[in-house]
Write a structure and sequence with these properties.
Largest sheet: 4 strands, mixed
Distance between the termini: 34 Å
CATH architecture: 2-Layer Sandwich
Order of helices and strands: EHEEHEEHEEHHEHEEHH
Bound molecules: iron/sulfur cluster
Number of helices: 8
Number of domains: 1
Radius of gyration: 18 Å
Strand content: 15-25%
CATH class: Alpha Beta
Oligomer: single chain
Structural class: alpha+beta
Helix content: 25-40%
Strand order of the largest sheet: 8-1-10-9
CATH topology: Alpha-Beta Plaits
Length: about 260
């Protein structure tokens, strides 16, 4: 669980976003991620979803409007840095996913064993894998914020649609500004990526009441301690995968 006192967060306000995707480019640049070959599938959204080499994307939501021909809601999708993180709960490899001092959920690819259990344990379908089968995702730029810099995506955003700072302060300011919903204030113990919405979360394509699968909680509470004592991470991971979740589901990614 994150320490509330030091907890940092990114606040996303979709109505301020112009869909320029500067945040996507900045993330790739800072993290030295390769380009992804994609196909035009009739939308400006590109790539279509998170990928091993895409830690954040802008979702282009077109919603009904009485005032304009088109109402665009550009919603940043990335790791939510959950306080109660399903990925950390299920991960059988010590230190592969870990909590930073600022409350982010970061990863150590050298410790990842490539079991992919975190994919199914994440309520937001976030973790992806690189070409060497190691977990990848947004890490809240822990390397930048530890050096007193803003996350690369936030620093680049030209409109203030992404803001970084003290989590409690960001929430307090957004409430004073009169937003209808602060998504992530309480969900899963409180998210580290929070959203200020003028309408219902479902209009922005957000999951309502995200929860960690019960099988993950069962594994975390009863079986994971056994794996640490004797089975070893890889064997335990393989066993629990079939007992609790089922076979791996591979994502289609062209990198
Ligand atoms: S959004 Fe998913 S990957 Fe990110 S911290 Fe939460 S459970 Fe883990
Ligand atoms: S916080 Fe850093 S790693 Fe996360 S999306 Fe922004 S630039 Fe990428
Ligand atoms: S950089 Fe800012 S304005 Fe541009 S797409 Fe990203 S969040 Fe939106």
């Amino acid at each position: 669980m994150a320490n509330d006192k030091n907890r940092k967060a990114i606040l996303v306000t979709p109505e301020d976003c112009i869909g320029c995707r500067g945040c996507q480019v900045a993330c790739k640049s800072w993290n030295q991620l390769p380009g992804i070959k994609t196909k035009n599938n009739g939308t400006y959204q590109n790539p279509p979803d998170l990928a091993g080499a895409a830690f954040n994307i802008i979702r282009y939501n077109e919603v009904p409007s009485t005032e304009n021909p088109v109402r665009w809601l550009f919603v940043s999708r990335r790791c939510m840095h959950c306080d109660d993180a399903g990925c950390m709960k299920i991960c059988p490899a010590p230190g592969a996913l870990y909590r930073t001092a600022e409350g982010a959920v970061a990863f150590d690819r050298d410790k990842c064993i490539g079991c992919k259990l975190c994919v199914n344990a994440c309520p937001f379908d976030v973790p992806r894998y690189d070409a060497e089968n190691k977990v990848t995702k947004c890490h809240l730029c822990f390397d930048r914020i530890g050096a007193a810099m803003q996350p690369a995506c936030v620093k680049t955003c030209p409109t203030g649609a992404l803001k970084f700072g003290d989590r409690a302060e960001l929430i307090g300011t957004a409430k004073k500004q009169g937003f209808k919903t602060i998504y992530g204030e309480q969900d899963l113990g409180g998210l580290g990526t929070i959203y200020a919405f003028k309408d219902e979360p479902k209009l922005y394509g957000m999951k309502e009441n995200p929860t960690i699968p019960y099988s993950v909680i069962f594994w975390h509470t009863y079986l994971k301690p056994l794996s640490v004592i004797g089975l070893g991470g890889v064997v335990a991971a393989a066993a629990i995968h079939y007992l609790a979740i089922g076979p791996h589901k591979e994502k289609d990614e062209e990198v």
